[in-house]
Amino acid sequence: DSGVTQTPKHLITATGQRVTLRCSPRSGDLSVYWYQQSLDQGLQFLIHYYNGEERAKGNILERFSAQQFPDLHSELNLSSLELGDSALYFCASSVTGGLGTDTQYFGPGTRLTVL
Amino acid sequence: DQQVKQNSPSLSVQEGRISILNCDYTNSMFDYFLWYKKYPAEGPTFLISISSIKDKNEDGRFTVFLNKSAKHLSLHIVPSQPGDSAVYFCAASEMDSNYQLIWGAGTKLIIKP
Lengths: 115, 113
Fold this sequence. Notes:
The complex is a heterodimer. Chain A is mostly beta strands. Chain A has no helices and 11 strands. Chain A starts with a strand and ends with a strand.
């Protein structure tokens, strides 16, 4: 158990809909990262938040947005969903803001299926 | 443009033997490399890392080798155990990108009894 929790574990929805994925980092970790893993692909970095502020953006679509709240949990919002958005979405947390090479600890992921 | 490549989707090794997982990269600015292990229905777990100032890092049964001139790194697991069966991801980062991780597609390692 990494200490990072993600809810829900599974999500099935229809095209055009909007969903929210939630992540609670390990106690004491200030950074939250979101990744997308499509079938048989590596992890694609989406976005990084540090202590409530957006720190870096990767290959995140405009239909997707995220935020980190004062209690440090984070939400990833996916809207106008398309079939191609079906994937595993991972959240990871780390102690610092990525300025060093601190280890990222991953949650179990949310499997999103868009029908 | 795949900056980090794991060309073997899967690898099968006999228990007790050495497992060697390979990873190639194209960006010469990468200066930090990591290996993560992933079991089904779980998130990736950090295994071992190496900085570009080193060419080898060892942690128990796991050793990572870095060949900067060839832009190649490898993970050696000796001896291989059944619990090592998992998907192994190689990831790389550079200081200028705030150490944002770029991931390979993974290699599924199967340890045969």
